[in-house]
## 1
Amino acid sequence: MKHIRIGLVGAGFMGKTHLWSVRNLPFFYKTADLGFTAEVAAVCASTPARGEAFAREYGIPRVMTAEEMITDPDIDVIDICTPNPLHFEVAKAAILAGKSVLCEKPLTVTAKEADELARLAEERGAVCGTVFNNRFLAPVMRARQLIDEGKLGRILSFAFTYKHNSCIDPDRRVGWKQTAEAGGGTWYDLGPHAVDLCHYLCGELSFVLGKSQIAYPTHLKADGSVWETNADEAFYVICGTKEGAMGTVTVSKLTQGANDELTFSVNGERGSLSFSLMDPNYLNFYDATAVGSPMGGLRGYTRIECVGRYPSPASGFPAIKAPQGWLRGHIGCMAGYLSAVAGGVACSPSFSDGAYVQRVLEAAVESDRLGREVRLC
Ligand SMILES: NC(=O)c1ccc[n+]([C@@H]2O[C@H](COP(=O)([O-])OP(=O)(O)OC[C@H]3O[C@@H](n4cnc5c(N)ncnc54)[C@H](O)[C@@H]3O)[C@@H](O)[C@H]2O)c1
């Protein structure tokens, strides 16, 4: 059985999440069904001391630099969990060195870089995945099935939103994710998830009309000094698909009451779907073909109990009826990616999907700058 050795680049929030996912694969999937085992064999952080502290805390055998991992024959996969501007160089060097690469969203900070990575991965036959973890939540998977089965018919309209409240708090210190240097504020941080789900469920976009918002011209830096806001705090996009559906993609860190509020509604001729990440066990489905009389008949939203009902090779742990959450999407994403590595086959979502999202993000920013819609095809 193949054993996959992963070099983790970045030891922050996502480094921890990916490590947790790799370690917990044998609980959520039977190893015999997966057909591989995996370990995080080495870690790299911003300094050797940080890497050593992380390795000690979580029992990772080696602390290395990214360059060392990329040239080490004992590392199979480079797993990139660093701030956005650091993805490109490491991913490119890793592909050129013959490694498989898993990279956090957004794939890069420019569409040109993302396209270059997608092309390189294709040319070299490298198994390269972008982490769009929300695709692996049971209600999102079920939504895709229902759309594929034609239960919605022609899609007419949609709304994808991702809302946090973190730009409102006056005491919260600005982090790299709020800065232009990191690639562009809320749109580049939350936008990739919303745009990817829109792509996954509704298809490719033909145009975007974007508008950014900065509600707080200044924030505080870690040392308490004043920082001038240089990237959007919220971003609003009106868009249309090649198939003729129209809708919106909205991301905001200016939403009081929001925790991790990723939502969508997709509305077709025959029915509608809606979902919220804060209610991650259920998909709401409205079947417009259901009998509507007398007195509403059987028509109305069904709250589909997706919960832990993941398809094979999922093991059913902890129980198909046990509530699932955000981490379940990450472990599903990791299982799918490493299965592709083990089988030597193309993975989904791939670097091509990451590059597609990057082009949409950039087109929306361009639209905001120009004050008019930007065509994508
Ligand atoms: N898919 C998701 O659900 C999700 C959620 C949050 C963040 N992300 C993405 O994950 C990535 C990391 O975000 P995060 O929240 O973990 O950030 P973080 O700030 O918590 O962690 C970043 C880590 O990178 C390390 N680092 C910085 N420079 C480095 C260098 N030169 N070499 C090696 N390590 C370096 C830092 O020490 C830190 O440990 C970003 O691209 C972000 O957009 C994805």
## 2
Amino acid sequence: MSETDRPSPPVVRLARCPICAKAASEAFRPFCSKRCADVDLNRWLGGGYAIPAAEEPDPESEEIPDLRDDP
Ligand SMILES: [Zn+2]
């Protein structure tokens, strides 16, 4: 009897939110929330993917600057 070919356990892999590095949510992946999804979208719509001030968002901080640009 060999146990070398036993099936691997199911692995639930959730990516991390690229915005705040929290665990991504199933509903908003790869982001953790709609807000982070919006932030990412606004970056693209803004034409630049550069972050002016903070290079690495603090994982503990959920403070997202208001990037909305209402006409
Ligand atoms: Zn996030």
## 3
Amino acid sequence: MGKVVSVAIGEANLRISLADTGTQSLNTVYKAATHKTNAKFLKQMFSAIDKLKNFEGIGVASPGLLNASKGIIHKSRNLGLADLNIVKILEDRYKVPVFLSSRAVAGVLAEHLFGSGKDCRQMAFLTFSTGIECGVILNGRLLLGKEGNAHEIGHAIIDANSSVQCGCGGKGHWEAFTSGSGIPVFARYLLNTKYEDKKSSLRSVKELHPQAVFDAAKKDKVAAGIVAEIGRINAMGAGNMSSIFDLELITVSGGVALYNKDAVLNPIAKDIGKYTVNKPPKVVISKLGEKTVPYGAVADFM
Ligand SMILES: [Zn+2]
């Protein structure tokens, strides 16, 4: 096979790349904010793919919930797409084979084939973006689940007594505390409870973006305390993964981690052993960075 198209759908950006299966290279040809209704999204995706010539397949990676084997994106709370039969739509338009996988599955496959997890048979890809997801390979095989949704670790309950609400409506879920969408809510919660009577530069920030919290932590004690709490919760979540899956390796990715490598990675790598009964896995930042999921989307063709 020669050239294939990679469609990596994210809550923030749609990234379309052209990959060469011979040289195993991948070049991004389109990146823009993801349009958030089915009709607008399809128009956006078609206009980018229509410009590409002589490709022999398309791989799509998307946040869930999916029915991956039927090729349908059922819904994504953070994305706005619903019941989108994306595989059939792309096959009908471009007359090439199309595969759909979850973003986390694509991520772990890319890390396994091209990244830090080469030759590793027990590994996970853990991504911190708008939500938290993990893709898992056990005994050299991908863990998929009945509809391809075995990646929703972000909704694992970390604190059963917490009032901090997740985007899904549940309370105390991992991503409610430490994902891109959770950090602002959790930081505000801590400012109003644990740090109620403490001064902090974060109090004057109107829109608390995760980056504002990590940046402030370099000189503000309260922000540093919040970042430490984020680190403790992430170590706990990764520890749960280790206890469930008995992993050799976790590769960490997603915008929140890639832009704050030390602050996100170090507490997990250092403290995961406190929260698992198993021998803790090695924890590293993804070497492929923002290209992990685009590579994984077309891994079936490579
Ligand atoms: Zn949730």
## 4
Amino acid sequence: MATMITDECINCGACEPECPNTAIYQGGVEYDWQGAKRDALSNEIFYIVPEKCTECVGFYDHEACAAVCPVDCCIPNPAIPEAEDILLARAAQIHPDKTFGPDFPSRFKGGNGAAATAGDPAAPAAAAAAPAAATAPAVTPAAKPAAATAPVAVARVGKVEKKAVAPLQRPVPRTVPYRGELPITFDEAREIVSTAAPSGGMHVVPLAVSLLQPILGALPAKTKDRLEAALGDRRVFSSAGATGMNLFVHMVAIPLLFTGFAVFALDDSFFSKTVRPWFFYGVLAAIAEAVFRLRECVLRAKPVSEAVYRGALYGPLLIPLVTPLLRKANAHTEENREAFEGYYGPTTAFDDKRERERRYGEVYTIEERPSGWLFRLELPRRIPPSGVKHELGLGDEMPDYDLTMTLEGNVFVVHGKVVDPRLRTIAATAPAFPPDFTTRIPLAERCLGFVQRCESKVVEAVLVKQSAASRLRALSDAA
Ligand code: SF4
Ligand code: SF4
């Protein structure tokens, strides 16, 4: 039977170039038949001219249009049952210059034809009609079947199976470590690089910051967060710890200040009846300040991790004290960002641009820690749009890249490549899709090695500085 297109067609046009008989036309476009133009069989959706359709007999072992249709709306037309020899005769008529040998491809020879016939209520009629039809002349356009003249909604019968698409090839899992990869876990490496190397005692600056925490806790919340990141060691300075110490100091200092003010203003003794209540007022003021600064935790019972560690009124005056340390912190993190011109806000264009940069290995951050670096690189998530992708029946999800990481002197190098040959074919035709990328990260000093992991399209690496050698040794000794 001829193939037909149901009204589920979404007009994607994928089927049209697949037809070996040019039997498929866009809705509203006249079709050619026997040297003349004929009116379109549908004005809304793509349509198949039954007189030209051979169900691909003579060319493929399946219906080529059905194999590419994304919504499975190319189906056998139950109103036009036709046997294989009829269809082959039609193919010979349409292609007089072509010879069809005894081994001509046909869906009737494979599982498709059998499956289609089995589920088709018109099959017995088709079988019965076949001998007669073999001798009958081909159907003429004048006798257009009613079912083909307009978009139709029909029950699915004899659904054509799509050609199976082989899954995308993924990289072979590594059995040997990369050159320079350290035999410790990712978390162990991150712990090592996040703390400064011991050098016979604390350095002067961290020690001073640590001792000044009760005062520095008065700094504004953002400044404290940046300072914590700059020092990279919560034992030296932590936003939460410093704020707590500062509030504790205020619990003592504010009542004493209030009392001192009363002594001075009322010109009375420290323990007199008129001055004593001022100590109490001071305690109340200190409590009110603590509640105000930690209001998320105290009033809304939020967990400590979500608290904002606000500073004291005089906190901004302390910022110049820590500015040199903050400058250093700013130099610690480098982010390789694509140009943002024209891409402000969460627009699709911005997403596309970021995805494009990922294909070049250019979306990464490198963050310096006291004893190393934390590196994070985003890998592409989607196969870029391409006609070839559609033809090959590939989905959208990009498979994992085959990665190689190495240290070349002071440079950390990440090389990624797509392994599936079909993806490499797409890369050859699609714009901005290199099949390989190499990202080179120059480091300020040599590293002992690195530890890496790749999860959810993100590569992370911890690069350990030479200053952490003793801790690394201690870790391997303990193991
Ligand atoms: S089944 Fe084959 S011959 Fe018929 S319309 Fe589809 S692609 Fe063309
Ligand atoms: S491939 Fe399917 S949906 Fe696309 S135009 Fe052809 S029949 Fe319509």
